[in-house]
Amino acid sequence: MTAARATLASWWDGDLLYRFRRSPVAIVSLLVAVLLFAVALGADAIAPYDAFDPAAANVVDARLPPGSAGMYGETYLLGTDPQGRDMLSAMIYGLRTSLMVGLASVVLAALVGVLLGLVAGYFGGVLDAVIMRIADVQLSFPAILIALLIDGVTRTALPREVHDALAVPILVFAIAASFWVQYARTVRGLVLVERNREYVLAARVIGVSTPRILFTHILPNVLGPVLVIATINLALAILTEATLSFLGVGLPSTQPSLGSLVRIGNEFVFSGDWWISAAPGALLVLLSLSVNIFGDFLRDALNPKLAS
User: Fold this and answer.
1) Rounded Cα gap, residues 250 and 281, in angstroms
2) What is the spatial distance between Cα 77 and Cα 4, in angstroms, rounded to a whole number?
3) Which of 163, 222, 243, 288 could form a disulfide with 158 if both were Cys (CB 3.0 to 4.6 A apart)?
4) Does residue 35 lie in a domain region?
């Protein structure tokens, strides 16, 4: 128990938490992000209606303004969409979908990028040159263009119903394919430094296997920058999903996300139905802003050159 308390005290008094406690902006951004994550995870219990249930939508109640009463006496706090779905419920479920796509794409991009960065930095030579040249070529294309290309190829190769059923995995893969380069280049640069450190050389001398050196010795020492990149990329992945859905190549309208809700509402903005687009747009901004601000804090706090 004493050792556990000492560890907890050391962690609490650490530089990262010390800087966090002295940054009100970081605290507020983290609280907002955690609150939105909690709402997304509890969508089934929090949302007034099931946005995926066709029976919960009533076309008679379509495009009702915020605070309106429905045909059967329901109260829609944020109004309804063109399908008659409760906007608050659709936004909560859309928040969960956007977070799920963003988190999955960041995890996939980090796994691929970290693995390629470890291999390129540790082995060097032709393998390093090939991986980095592929990364350089990909950097010459905008991320949104790569995602559009992957989505377009899958739409051409797969029947429409199959593509709609696999919309989420395809979108995750498309976004991850755009972001792995940052992880690979960062990890490679760090591994080039770490591979010549004494602890790595000692591990080689005593016969430790290469995979164990990479994943047990080197990887823990390069995870700090990876965490910062992942935090910032989460906001970018959510915005990329929203952009693709807004362009009509992301998730289908039957599977609400923040981006698809904004796209649907955009068609009715000039009709005066501003809430259909404005409400999910504001939630998207709040989510991206909170994650971005906290990511900026982590970047500054974990950068020794900026440590006070």
Assistant:
1) 16
2) 48
3) 163
4) no
Inter-CA distances, 64 with 77, 135, 301, Å: 10, 49, 46
Instruction: For 131, list phi and psi in degrees, rounded to 5.
Output: -65, -45
Per-residue pLDDT tens digits for 187-228: 999 999 998 888 888 988 898 898 999 999 899 888 888 988
Give the residue among 289, 260, 80, 232 at the shortest CA–CA distance from 168: 260
- Look at the block and give the residue holding tokens 């290309």: 149
Q: Is residue 234 part of a domain?
A: yes
Which stretch of DSSP H or E encloses residue 69? strand 68-69
Q: Which residue has the tokens 């291999």?
A: 119
Report the half-sphere exposure of 158 (CA within 13 A, side-chain side): 15
Determine, yes or no, domain membership for 46. no
Rounded-to-integer distance, Cα 266 and Cα 287, Å: 20
Please tell me the pTM assigned to this model: 0.86
Interstrand relation of 68-69 and 75-76 (parallel, antiparallel or unpaired)? antiparallel
Q: What CATH number corresponds to the domain at position 261?
A: 1.10.3720.10
Tokens representing residue 271 in the block:
């009709």
4: tokens are 């556990």
Pick the closest to residue 119 from 108, 131, 110 (CA basis).
Answer: 131
Name the pLDDT band for 9 (thresholds 50, 70, 90).
Answer: low
Q: How far apart are CA 99 and CA 175, in angstroms?
A: 13
Q: Which amino acid is at 45?
A: A
Range of the domain at 272: 94-306
Structure tokens at 103: 């988190």
Residue 287 to residue 34: CA distance in whole angstroms: 10
Q: How far apart are CA 93 and CA 50, in angstroms?
A: 8
Asked if residue 61 belongs to a domain, the reply is no
How many domains would you assign to the chain? 1
Which stretch of 12-16, 25-29, 108-112, 134-138 has the lowest confidence by average pLDDT? 12-16
